[in-house]
Design a protein that fits this description.
9 strands, Spore Coat Polysaccharide Biosynthesis Protein SpsA, Chain A, 7-stranded mixed beta sheet, single chain, globular, alpha/beta, about 210 residues, two-stranded antiparallel ribbon
């Protein structure tokens, strides 16, 4: 069995939140608390060292007691840049971690067994990486990556200009782990104001 303490985590908050009118979507209130606080409650028990990938002044995240790093490549290169940032941070700050788990910061109901199941799938299927799947959709941002592939990912992002996660993972053995939905999609993400309203309704029902 893999030890989850050997897994570093990266919270991806580098998007521009255009559908929310810009700003830090992960800091927007959900039932009186920043949505990031819900994500952290579910993520922190699943990983060891944890990084927040975000741009701009890190002080606005001070209450969460997390290291914050901007993308290690310029030009808003998308989630692959955030994953690369997490990998290179883990290499330097968490050298005992062989794996990096990545998470979106707008999904307040993400599974609390996400990392354990991704780790198990990698081992059982002999895969190099793993991603989540639910309700007929893949969730490539909720995934597990070998830190040893940081150099290959940097080459793909910087030299080959890869921007879509699927374009890069297509070159590797990728395990897909399906998560069942009970009352709602476990990877429900709050992209628009109406999504926040729906998330509040789901919290009230829980």
């Amino acid at each position: 069995m893999f030890e989850q303490t050997k897994v570093a985590g990266v919270l991806l908050a580098g998007g521009q939140a255009r559908r929310m009118g810009g700003g830090d979507k992960c800091l927007r209130p959900l039932a009186g608390r920043p949505i990031l606080s819900y994500v952290l409650e579910r993520v922190r028990p699943q990983v060891g060292p944890l990084l927040l990938n975000a741009h701009g002044d890190a002080l606005r995240f001070a209450e969460f007691d997390l290291p914050v790093a901007t993308d290690v490549v310029e030009g808003h290169a998308g989630p692959l840049a955030g994953i690369l940032t997490g990998m290179e941070w883990a290499q330097h700050k968490a050298p005992g971690c062989e794996w990096l788990a990545s998470f979106a910061t707008d999904a307040p109901f993400l599974p609390d067994d996400l990392v354990a199941r991704l780790l198990r799938a990698v081992k059982e299927e002999g895969a190099e990486m793993a991603r989540a799947f639910s309700l007929g959709r893949a969730h490539p941002v909720f995934a597990l990556w070998p830190v040893a592939l940081a150099g290959e990912l940097r080459h793909a992002v910087v030299e080959k200009k890869f921007r879509k996660i699927d374009a890069w993972t297509g070159h590797y053995r990728l395990a897909t782990v399906e998560f069942a939905s009970k009352s709602h999609d476990p990877f429900f993400n709050a992209n628009r104001p109406e999504d926040f309203a729906e998330a509040e309704r789901l919290i009230e029902k829980s």
